[in-house]
Design goal:
The chain is mostly helical. It has one domain: Amino acid/polyamine transporter I. The radius of gyration is 20 Å and the shape is globular.
């Protein structure tokens, strides 16, 4: 489910733009992002399994000062709740663009249908059913993007060189984007809660850790194949403004099947994100507010329902509300470093985790990732402010 959450249309778009503009040169960025994500997500899963709390509950309950507690609640509800609602339209439209390329039917129509199907799936309140549907789509996504990359015929030698760190002129913005679309704040909330649905407790930590590493690795491979496809398909320096159009541009280069596979992958990426974003928003918001986080509770359903409705209405109105997205980006830029710092702090609390607290190596790795996340947050805020 974590892989389903972070491989969305935004990731596909960023990887496509990066591959078209800089070729294979930034593959190392994805490799680094995957390792960093594994570190943070493993901590999040361990927190959920051992403490029995979601990240929202833990964040609220660790502070004695009401002002700090209210600030934490505000940040979570704003960045995760409102943020997932703001991005939901992009998730739906991204998946709909893939279906529109295949069928010729307007993306707006497919967007509404996708939103309604996601709503029905979530309303069942059956975690296993939701998980199986998303896992199936991740498999479809992986096969589709890998097939598309193979058909386009990448340069294996250049792929290998892409894992050697380099920073081409003009690339820092996209490096930040690739890392930022992989290390996703709401995934930390999603993971801490969904491990409790899937496993029993600390005795399942090893299995959970293996699952986390494998699923994030699969997500990383998917992102890499998208970048490789764009790098092989277009001359370095090509600008891509619409990832939906990219699928059509592949057809004259590698045939109808390349277009078809890429479009199917784009649909799967959109639908999985359109389902997991409301779920993550509901878990984070209900946890922060102290509400029942059961999948079938009325308040939990109300939160994801609002997020989904905002996404569908935005599609019908012709796009995402820019003001809300900018607000969500600003608060997310503040929240992700705070969540990463808090997560590292919580993982050293013996009264919360007992013998399962971080060791020296985990703390060192977590500190490195947290510093990078703080840097990304500052970069994002400065970029939105127009300073850089």
């Amino acid at each position: 489910m974590v892989a389903a959450a972070f491989i969305g249309p935004g990731t596909v778009t960023t990887a496509s733009v990066t591959g078209a503009e800089f070729g294979y040169a930034l593959l190392w960025t994805i490799a680094f992002s995957i390792v960093a994500t594994m570190i943070l997500q493993e901590m999040s899963a361990r927190l959920g399994l051992v403490s029995g709390e979601g990240l929202g509950e833990a964040l609220r309950e660790r502070f004695d000062t009401q002002v700090v507690e209210y600030l934490a609640i505000f940040l979570v509800v704003s960045a995760i709740g409102i943020g997932t609602a703001a991005y939901e339209a992009g998730n739906i439209l991204g998946g709909a663009a893939g279906l529109a390329t295949i069928t010729g039917v307007d993306a707006q129509i497919w967007g509404v249908i996708m939103g309604l199907v996601a709503g029905v799936l979530l309303f069942t309140g059956q975690y296993k059913l939701i998980e199986r549907a998303l896992v199936g789509l991740v498999v479809v996504m992986a096969l589709s993007f890998v097939a598309s990359a193979i058909l386009i015929g990448p340069d294996v030698g250049k792929i290998a060189l892409g894992f050697v760190p380099s920073v081409p002129e003009g690339s820092p913005y996209l490096i930040t984007g690739l890392i930022g679309t992989t290390i996703v704040g709401y995934n930390l909330f999603l993971h801490a809660s969904n491990v409790q649905e899937r496993w029993g407790g600390p005795e399942d930590l090893e299995e959970s850790r293996t699952d986390t590493i494998l699923s994030i690795a699969v997500g990383g491979i998917i992102t890499m194949t998208v970048l490789v496809t764009a790098a092989a398909a277009f001359p370095v320096g090509t600008e891509i403004s619409n990832v939906g159009k990219m699928a059509k541009q592949l057809e004259p280069l590698a045939g109808t099947y390349a277009k078809l596979f890429f479009s199917i992958g784009l649909f799967a990426a959109g639908f999985t994100s359109a389902t997991t974003a409301p779920l993550a928003g509901a878990w984070a918001t209900t946890g922060a507010l102290g509400w029942d986080s059961d999948l079938k509770s009325p308040k939990f359903r109300a939160v994801w329902g609002v997020i989904l409705v905002v996404g569908i209405l935005s599609v019908l109105l012709g796009g995402s509300p820019v003001e809300i997205i900018v607000f969500a980006q600003v608060v997310n830029g503040v929240l992700l470093p705070i969540v990463a710092i808090f997560l590292l702090y919580a993982m050293n609390e013996t009264d919360l985790l007992g013998e399962y607290t971080n060791g020296p190596v985990a703390n060192a790795l977590g500190a490195i990732v947290t510093i990078i996340v703080v840097w990304l947050g500052i970069q994002g805020l400065l970029s939105i402010a127009g300073i850089i």
